[in-house]
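ARCHIVE CARD
CATEGORY: sequence design from structure
SOURCE FIELD: tokenized fold
FIELD CONTENT:
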């Protein structure tokens, strides 16, 4: 790819204090079998040596863009604004791709041009060495692929699209907008929901992405170290409005309502962890669900406990998850 030629794919890596891991991420991109890409690393105000390390690469496809620390969504949005390709793929700085990721994604775009997002199956690698394969329901065969028939149903059954295993066409962002700013948990889920409201999502069951749970500073395992605003309620508001505006059919409405309940409970969980039990209980009382009824009332009960006891229980849960 020459300097003035538009690449086929823009790869965006948001970088904030991931010096220990970013080399692995960058080299997994450079090791792709599909070579027509640019790599945009958005340094989101890092205070470690990660940006210097990336600038040490001489590959002309790599660009480093600096900005102040505004969070992962702002970094992704900056990358989208800087991208030159018609397709944008995302990789977190502490994850990696297997060599066939981009080739698989590009193959999906050719077979399913109507889709608004393209994703592959992933693996979770735990510090213990345990590996968990994440694949959407209905895509059990190793190399099966196609359109996810009901994204909301799939999400409820455990189909979690990893932000490190998704690519989105540029024209889709022009329609649905950017990643939400200030939503520390669920910012990627918010985006996939907005896309699913307007487009089908294409998926491959081939494992092409690795999610490393041992990475320090991940929001999913350090939930109790952030400011804890419960602001992933933005996703709940989006889902509720989609239902009231009739943007989905009757066959999908119940699944979206439960999807909405899932994130209402997640928002309430944030409030419980930060000692705002009253706010959590107000959310949970309004939460209508059948599937998550036990979780709803479980967190309602936890909201009545002292905050220090809740934090101790959460730390024990995190240690168990790390395996």
């Amino acid at each position: 790819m020459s300097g003035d030629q538009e690449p086929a794919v823009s790869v965006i890596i948001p970088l904030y204090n991931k010096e220990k891991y970013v080399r692995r991420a960058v080299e997994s991109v450079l090791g792709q079998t599909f070579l027509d890409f640019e790599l945009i690393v958005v340094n989101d105000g890092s205070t470690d040596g990660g940006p210097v390390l990336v600038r040490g690469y001489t590959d002309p496809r790599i660009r480093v863009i600096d900005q102040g620390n505004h969070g992962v969504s702002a970094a992704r949005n900056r990358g989208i604004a800087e991208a030159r390709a018609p397709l944008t793929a995302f990789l977190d700085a502490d994850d990696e791709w297997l060599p066939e990721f981009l080739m698989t994604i590009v193959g999906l775009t050719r077979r399913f041009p109507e889709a608004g997002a393209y994703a592959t199956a992933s693996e979770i690698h735990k510090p213990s060495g345990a590996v968990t394969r994440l694949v959407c329901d209905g895509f059990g065969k190793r190399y099966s692929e196609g359109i996810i028939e009901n994204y909301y149903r799939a999400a409820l059954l455990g189909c979690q699209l990893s932000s490190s295993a998704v690519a989105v066409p540029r024209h889709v962002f022009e329609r649905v907008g950017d990643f939400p700013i200030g939503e520390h948990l669920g910012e990627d889920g918010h985006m996939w929901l907005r896309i699913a409201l307007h487009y089908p999502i294409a998926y491959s069951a081939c494992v092409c992405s690795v999610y490393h749970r041992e990475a320090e500073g991940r929001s999913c395992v350090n939930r109790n170290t952030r400011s804890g605003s419960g602001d992933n309620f933005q996703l709940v508001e989006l889902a509720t409005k989609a239902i009231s505006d009739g943007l989905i059919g009757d066959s999908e409405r119940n699944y979206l309502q439960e999807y909405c309940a899932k994130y209402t409970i997640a928002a309430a969980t944030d409030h419980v962890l930060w000692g705002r039990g009253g706010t959590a209980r107000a959310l949970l009382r309004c939460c209508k669900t059948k599937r998550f009824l036990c979780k709803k009332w479980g967190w309602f009960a936890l909201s009545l406990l002292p905050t220090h006891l809740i934090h101790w229980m959460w730390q024990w849960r995190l240690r168990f998850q790390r395996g």
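CARD ANNOTATION: The first strand starts at residue 9 and ends at 15. The chain has twelve helices and ten strands.
SHELF: design records, drawer C
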